[in-house]
Amino acid sequence: MSVISEKNQLTLISIAETAKFYTSLCLGTTAFLSVFAFLFLIPFVVDPAISSLMADYEPEPVTCMATQHIYAEGISNCSWASCREGCTREATRCHQIYVNYSKLPFRDYRPSIVMHWDVADIRFLINTEGCGYPPSVNCSEFARQYGYETAGTPFPCYYSRVYPDIQVVARYSWDDTLRHLVLSITIPNLLFAASIGVLSYWYCPGCGRSCQKYMHHFPTE
């Protein structure tokens, strides 16, 4: 019976060691991917979100009207663009839309109102960065919606209370921006910290002793 018991114990130990190995492999991969995910999210989510929050856009859309729509080709002619599909490359073809805006909330706009424009001929961007990636950003559709023959038709937009004379944007949500910022920072860092914490506890000989040493400072019932 003792031989059988020892074999069962060895089998259990072997299963536990195998499970620990594969769990460690998964945790190490998770930590590795978390670092790259966070580095990837910095230019695409974190930085634009911080820029949007710092610009302090008016949360309620105001009234805008396009005054000019320019379609240009060539890097020299596309020093800026209202919309770019891709944020890491220079635009060789671009739409440049200028608008007037009034601080009148768009929900209060009526065709019978004589508009007083607070700022005239200001740059109009799809978002704070003026760029994005399909399918959420489609510059051809954006140009059809706000430029071409629709010029002169009022539409909602958001102006920056910090930079009111620089640009206005078509898309903004304080709640969504803050949520994306918090998630993009917390999730990769929590996964990295949890993975490294477990691996350190398992494979760092001093970690367990350090934890036990600090536990003695807490009273026990």
UniProtKB/TrEMBL annotation:
<feature type="transmembrane region" description="Helical">
    <location>
        <begin position="21"/>
        <end position="46"/>
    </location>
</feature>
<dbReference type="GO" id="GO:0005886">
    <property type="term" value="C:plasma membrane"/>
</dbReference>
<dbReference type="GO" id="GO:0017080">
    <property type="term" value="F:sodium channel regulator activity"/>
</dbReference>
<dbReference type="Pfam" id="PF16972">
    <property type="entry name" value="TipE"/>
</dbReference>
<keyword id="KW-1133">Transmembrane helix</keyword>
<keyword id="KW-0812">Transmembrane</keyword>
<dbReference type="GO" id="GO:0002028">
    <property type="term" value="P:regulation of sodium ion transport"/>
</dbReference>
<keyword id="KW-0472">Membrane</keyword>
<protein>
    <recommendedName>
        <fullName>Protein tipE</fullName>
    </recommendedName>
</protein>
<dbReference type="InterPro" id="IPR031578">
    <property type="entry name" value="TipE"/>
</dbReference>
<feature type="transmembrane region" description="Helical">
    <location>
        <begin position="181"/>
        <end position="203"/>
    </location>
</feature>
